[in-house]
Amino acid sequence: MKENIKRVAAYCRVSTDKADQANSFESQKRYFREYIERNSNYSLYQIYADEGITGTTVKNRISFKMMIEDAKNGKFDLILTKEISRFARNLLDSIYYTRELKRYGVGVFFMNDNIYTMDSDAELRLAILATIAQEESRRTSERVKWGQKRRMEQGVVFGRSMLGYDIRNGQMTINEEGAEIVRRIFHLYTEEKKGYAEIARDLDASGIRPMRAEKWNGTVIMRILRNEKYIGDLIQKKTYTPDYLSHEKKYNRGAEDLVVLHDHHEPIVSKEIFEKAAERLFHQNNEKLDKKS
Predict the structure, then answer these.
(1) What is the mean pLDDT of residues 12-22?
(2) What letters, b where the CB count within 10 A reaches 16 and e where it falls short, cover 40-72?
């Protein structure tokens, strides 16, 4: 490698798994500092790290993007990273960013892979290893999805707590304070025949606040009335991730099988009340469609 390289940056992508001490931020910082100190021609500019973020894209990797900008501004001459899978598991990103850095005179040294991007054969070797890393990422994604589905079929709940239920360690338990609000919403809708907006105003006037919104609105009320969890049923995989590279979630409209479990947990409202609400929802929806036509 060039003898005149002085300013060195390091990049690491850090796992959030506390048990994974070998890849902890402090461990990696120490590793890079010691490596640079052993090379008299190097001086450490900065260590960039993204914590607990997937390596398949750079979209949400703030430190990575900052590092690229600093490289373009001539703040250092070389980037050290332990391996291709820590830099990027996406083949296109690997090639694109190493080429972009090379344009600005900045090389990347993949230490475990022994690839220095300023070498003449570096791009070929990088493409081969990046393809392998990307394929491993795809296989890992498939294994994770398969494992999650098996756990769903066993009744493990994926998701966060909601109005009326606390979800911890994959188990649903009734939160009585929230459950009373749910029962009130169903009562106002099915027995008192109030509309979504009217129920929202009623709850706001009572000083009751929704879990994840500033105030109640018709959409929040409608989602509660349609949520099968309130009668003890569990439907999972309502969303899915079609592309393991982008990790973008989409609504599952038949692309994958839903995981449906009846009588999975303790209900908050009876099936009779839920069906009564569903019938009114159906008629209201038809009335809206008739008005539009």
Answers:
(1) 59
(2) eebebbbbbbbeebbbbbbeebebbeebbebbe
* pTM (two decimals): 0.64
pLDDT in tens, 127-166: 898 888 778 878 888 999 999 999 999 999 999 999 999 9
Judge if 14 and 136 occupy the same domain. yes
The pLDDT tens digits of the residues spanning 213-253 come to 888 999 999 999 999 999 999 999 998 888 766 677 888 88
C-alpha separations of 186 from 204, 230, 275, 280 in Å: 16, 10, 11, 11
- Asked whether residue 67 is domain-assigned, the answer is yes
In angstroms, the CA 247 to CA 34 distance is: 35
Determine the pLDDT at residue 291.
61
Mean pLDDT of the chain: 87
For residue 48, what are its two tokens?
């960039």
Identify whether residues 176 and 113 lie together within a single domain.
Answer: no
Angle CA 110–111–116, to nearest 5: 45
Ranges of beta strands (E only) in the chain are 7-14, 43-51, 78-81, 107-110, 115-116, 165-168, 171-174, 234-236, 239-240, 250-251, 259-261
Nearest to 116 by CA among 65, 90, 74, 77: 77
Do residue 164 and residue 120 come from a single domain?
no
Contact between residue 230 and residue 224 where contact means Cβ atoms under 8 Å apart: yes
267-280 pLDDT, tens digit per residue, is 999 999 999 999 99
Q: Same domain, yes or no, for 105 and 12?
A: yes
Q: What is the CATH number of the domain that holds 126?
A: 3.40.50.1390
Q: Does residue 123 share a domain with residue 198? A: no
The DSSP result for 115-147, as a single string, is EETTSTTHHHHHHHHHHHHHHHHHHHHHHHHHH
* 88 and 45 within one domain: yes
Last residue of a domain, one of 141, 170, 196: 141
The total number of structural domains in the chain stands at: 2
